[in-house]
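@channel sequence for tomorrow's demo:
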Amino acid sequence: MAQSVVGCIESIQTMARAMGGIRSAPNEPPEKAGAYPFALTYEGAGRWSIGEPAGALTYRGDVVLEIHVARKDLPADVVALRRYIEELPEALAADPTLGGNASTIVGDVTFEGLVASGYAGVETLAYRWRVPVKVQVI
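structure tokens (generated this afternoon):
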């Protein structure tokens, strides 16, 4: 199986979809979130190394997962998100190659904690993780 940045995104979105209580986790970012809690995975910042070693193409960068809840009742919204704090790191520890799509997770997974956010005009609270991956494309 060839490694791929898109495959890493899809693998982490599949992990998010498997988390209890996630009501919406589409393959591609939708115009509207639909049901909440809502999970969204996308590519973050990264860099490509070409020819190190000769003939290689390597990506090192972040895959970002956000889980959103619609902002309605702060105490209940925070409780709804807290159940996910450890679920993603546990899933990543069980599969650090993301189904063979990455060489490995490199470095620490960054957890940004509770952030005020929004999606398609809806005020939300969100958790955001940045997963640093190394992908040997060629």
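heads up for whoever presents: The first helix runs from residue 5 to 18.
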